[in-house]
Amino acid sequence: MSQKQEEENPAEETGEEKQDTQEKEGILPERAEEAKLKAKYPSLGQKPGGSDFLMKRLQKGQKYFDSGDYNMAKAKMKNKQLPSAGPDKSLVTGDHIPTPQDLPQRKSSLVTSKLAG
Amino acid sequence: MAGAGGGGCPAGGNDFQWCFSQVKGAIDEDVAEADIISTVEFNYSGDLLATGDKGGRVVIFQREQENKSRPHSRGEYNVYSTFQSHEPEFDYLKSLEIEEKINKIRWLPQQNAAHFLLSTNDKTIKLWKISERDKRAEGYNLKDEDGRLRDPFRITALRVPILKPMDLMVEASPRRIFANAHTYHINSISVNSDHETYLSADDLRINLWHLEITDRSFNIVDIKPANMEELTEVITAAEFHPHQCNVFVYSSSKGTIRLCDMRSSALCDRHSKFFEEPEDPSSRSFFSEIISSISDVKFSHSGRYMMSRDYLSVKVWDLNMESRPLETHQVHEYLRSKLCSLYENDCIFDKFECCWNGSDSAIMTGSYNNFFRMFDRDTRRDVTLEASRESSKPRASLKPRKVCTGGKRKKDEISVDSLDFNKKILHTAWHPADSVIAVAATNNLYIFQGKIN
């Protein structure tokens, strides 16, 4: 029966068919999970595999720093402390101007791997 | 040898059991990011086992030869060499942080006494030579045994230095550095069967290199759209065919595999074969594309088949049939009803690898909770095993594990909600000939050996 429903009305959900859809959601746990996600994040786009998601993947490792902003901020706040990164040191975008203190140490592990111990 | 060609799994019907052999790495709960193992690979003979980690280090283990005086150490893997392969870098021009994490290690077939391997991080591939030195010269004329230079005017006689045996020293040296060829992050390297070339693949492009030439590479696949707004899929893995040096495959984030023939054109943007399982459009959900993304693709040793790993399953394909896979093996189907939380905690993007045994009769892949799965293709049986310190008594056989999906949880079963999603087994390797497997569980490397009871 559910097979027939899918053929007739793959995407639509009307009041009459709501019961069937609920049955379908029981049969298709993925759809139930999707409903849960949409309930939590209503603004979530329709196409998850679309370019936003992939662009985020391609931009891994990108750090943003504008030397102009940095120097302006330093000049404006001559006597005050520059705002530090706070607990989440990986976030150096937006209003926060990164300072040398914020950047994580870029030293390699000089320690031998524990697998070789 | 029974179970020859790599053995199957305990479900194979005979009294074949996987037993704990060794575990490497620290026991402490606090795992340093750098210690997380990111790749595991046996060499062609299986005598060497290499691991790479997030800290950019490579550790190579060597299998002990049979030794009558220490029978229990037969077949044990001990440290052979360790070195820092990659270091963290910063690309100032692009403001890009480059991780030192070793994404892949691939061995070259052995041609002389030395061993060679390729290791890569996101941007740079390096060819390493690992050689043994067991002799040193003594009796130099111009310097002391300590290396201090002697005053030439004090030398009254000449002598010929003699070679004396010394304790075995294993040296690793970088022989080639293949850099600046990838704008995006390298996910795969694969050595060609011609033993002269290899490919490297990033999210959007695949390059062909000659092992001797570092200042040039050929671009053979480019899927970057003219307008990045139109980007819909990325390359997730690539591999050369084990015997046909003109053939390679690459998989995508949309669940497709393309087979390309380098003889057809210089730029292989047009595939020769296109493998995709048709999807039932009515069962499509928000998660469909994400979970169909292929995280690994591996040719069988025979070259007749290939295997693809997506989030919930492993599929075996016949190279002669593009329309649908030959076999589909469910790895952890019970996660389908947990996709919402797996999306929220990013686990849905975990990239699991898969591997074949030597005879292509069995396949293995990892899961969560330090579980890994084995599928015997002949008997169609499968088993879930666990890499844990608890089942780490010497030569203790591993007990099959079971995840309870329904209501009533039987004794010894574990419920889906109790699974530890931080304990992921992403990397496993199978000895090319024997029943030996290596399983990376975060910062620990487990080695299991198969035995017939």
From TrEMBL, chain A:
Region of interest called Disordered, as start-end residue ranges on this chain: 1-53, 77-117
**Protein name per UniProt:** Alpha-endosulfine
Keywords associated with the record: Cell cycle, Cell division, Cytoplasm, Mitosis, Phosphoprotein, Protein phosphatase inhibitor
User: Where is it chiefly localized?
Assistant: cytoplasm
Single GO cellular component annotation? cytoplasm
Question: Which gene underlies this protein?
Answer: ENSA
Intracellular or extracellular location(s): Cytoplasm
What's this chain's function?
Answer: Protein phosphatase inhibitor that specifically inhibits protein phosphatase 2A (PP2A) during mitosis.
PANTHER family linked: ALPHA-ENDOSULFINE (PTHR10358:SF21), ENDOSULFINE (PTHR10358)
**Its GO biological process terms?**
cell division
Report the source organism: Callithrix jacchus (White-tufted-ear marmoset)
Automatic annotation (TrEMBL), chain B:
Task: Please state the gene responsible for encoding this protein.
Answer: PPP2R2D
Instruction: Please give one Gene Ontology molecular function term for this protein.
Output: protein phosphatase regulator activity
**UniProt protein name:** Serine/threonine-protein phosphatase 2A 55 kDa regulatory subunit B
Keywords attached to this Swiss-Prot or TrEMBL record, sorted alphabetically, are: Repeat, WD repeat
Q: Name one GO cellular component term.
A: protein phosphatase type 2A complex
Q: Which InterPro entries match?
A: PP2A_PR55 (IPR000009), PP2A_PR55_CS (IPR018067), WD40/YVTN_repeat-like_dom_sf (IPR015943), WD40_repeat_dom_sf (IPR036322), WD40_rpt (IPR001680)
Q: Which family does it belong to?
A: Belongs to the phosphatase 2A regulatory subunit B family.
